[in-house]
Amino acid sequence: MATTILALLEEHANSTQVKNCLEQGGYQVFVVDSFVEAKAILKLRDIDLIISDVHLDNGGNVFDFLRWVNRSKLPVAIPFVLFSFQPSPIAKYLADGVRTSARVLGAAKYIEMDSFDGEVFSKHIENLLPKERQDAERDIYENTD
Question: What proportion of the chain, given as a percentage, has pLDDT over 90?
Answer without folding.
Answer: 54
